[in-house]
Amino acid sequence: MESKWSGLVLIISVCLGSFQAGASPLHECGERPEDWCRDVATAAKCGALELCRLTAWDRALGKGIPCHLCQVAVSVVGKILQDNRTEEKLRLFLDKRCQYLPFQDWSVKCKRMVDTGILVLVQLGKQVLSDPKVVCGTFKLCQPRDRPTGTLKYQQPPPGPSQDFADLIAPFMANVPLLLHPQDLPHGEAQETEEVCGDCLQLVTAVQQQLGTNTAFTWALVGHAKWVCETLTPDLAQRVRQPAGKGP
C-alpha cells in the first residue's frame, strides 16, 4: 500500500513539475526533466525543486533534506564569490593587511599573493555554481551511491610571473630568518659571518661528495674538519670540534 502511495505522489509531482516547466518562459525549463535538476538554481527557476528532490536528488544522493539544504547554501556562497563587489571588498581588506608587514618587499609579495588568491576564489566560485552536489559530497552531506564522497577539483590559474603561488611564497619564506636575527650587523662582523658560512658550506659539500668511500678516507676528512674548525671563531670552533673528534 505504501509503495502505491509513493508511486501516486511521484506521478502527481511529475505532472505538476511538467506544468510549471511548460508555463515558464525560461529556455532551460523547456528542456528535458533531467536538465531541470542539473543544479539547484535551475530547479528553483523552473519551480521544480520538489520534483527534482523526489525523482533525482534523493534517489541518486541518498538522504535528501540535508543534501538539498547544502546545495542551496553552496549556491548562495558561489554567487557571493562571483560578485565583483565581494571580490573588491576582499581585495581591499587583504591589501590593507599587507601594508602592516615590516619590509617593503614583503608587502609587494603579499599583494601579489592576494591577487593569486582572489583568482583561486573566483575559479572556485565558478565550480561551486556549476555543480553544488560535488561540494556537498565533499562535506559528506550528499553521497552518490557509486562514489562515497564528493571531490573538488582545484585547477591552477594560468602560469605567469605574478600568478605562480610557489614562486611568490618561496622568497617570502626565505626572508623569515631575518625576523630571528639582527638586521643591521656592523660591517666587520657581517663580513666575518659570511666567511664562516662559506667555510662551512665548503666543508659540508666535501663531506657529502666523499664520505663513505672507505674508513681511512673518512678519518682523513675528520682531520680536515678539525683543521677547519681552528679557523672558526672560538665559540663556533668549540661547538663543532667535539662532534668532529668522534669520527665515524
From TrEMBL:
Keywords: Disulfide bond, Glycoprotein, Lysosome, Repeat, Secreted, Signal. GO terms for biological process: adenylate cyclase-inhibiting G protein-coupled receptor signaling pathway; regulation of lipid metabolic process; sphingolipid metabolic process. Residues 22-62 form the Saposin A-type domain. InterPro entries: SAP_A, SapB_1, Saposin, Saposin-like, SaposinB_dom, Sphingo_Act-Surfact_Prot. The keyword Secreted applies. Saposin-D is a specific sphingomyelin phosphodiesterase activator (EC 3.1.4.12). Saposin-B stimulates the hydrolysis of galacto-cerebroside sulfate by arylsulfatase A (EC 3.1.6.8), GM1 gangliosides by beta-galactosidase (EC 3.2.1.23) and globotriaosylceramide by alpha-galactosidase A (EC 3.2.1.22). Saposin-B forms a solubilizing complex with the substrates of the sphingolipid hydrolases. PANTHER family: PROSAPOSIN (PTHR11480:SF36), SAPOSIN-RELATED (PTHR11480). This is Prosaposin. It comes from Cyanistes caeruleus. The lineage of its organism: Eukaryota, Metazoa, Chordata, Craniata, Vertebrata. The gene is LOC111945767.
